[in-house]
Structures are given as C-alpha cells and as structure tokens.
Design a protein that fits this description.
flat
C-alpha cells in the first residue's frame, strides 16, 4: 500500500515510516532535510539531543563542499561532480 493511500484512510496512524534517500541527494546539503516525530513522549523528548549529536558527527563531511565532493567521488567514482 503506498504511503499516500495509507494517509488517506480514516484510521489512526500506527507504526513507523522510514524514508531513505539516495546518497547522491544526501550529499547535497541544500536538498536533504530530516523531520522526526515519535508518539512515545520519552523518546520524542530525547530525539532533539540525538539529532544534534548526529548533525555534529556528520558536519565535518557534509558541512564543507570540498569534503562532500571527495566523499561523493569515493561513493560514485572519480568522475562524480556532485556537491
């Protein structure tokens, strides 16, 4: 069942949704955004700290165009010009 059809149903939303994206898109800093929500209040409360730490870990790679380009070349090969 496509996610869009599931959202059209009049039933409560239950379960998880994970949407992944191509590494090519993820390496383009202005293309990828992450939005999160959890129905578990404890988990949801801790989520911002987790995201902040994750962004901190990824920033050395994703925060600089030349490093993103080098990473893209490592993934897609030296002819890659993604940034």
């Amino acid at each position: 069942l496509p996610f869009s059809k599931y959202l059209e149903e009049k039933a409560p939303i239950r379960g998880q949704v994970r949407i992944t994206l191509n590494p090519d898109v993820f390496l383009r800093a202005t293309y990828a955004r992450m939005f999160t929500y959890s129905a578990d209040p404890t988990y949801h409360k801790k989520r911002p700290k987790f995201i902040k730490e994750l962004v901190g870990l990824l920033e050395p790679v994703l925060g600089h165009k030349d490093v993103r380009t080098k990473a893209a070349c490592g993934i897609f090969g030296p002819s890659s010009s993604r940034s």
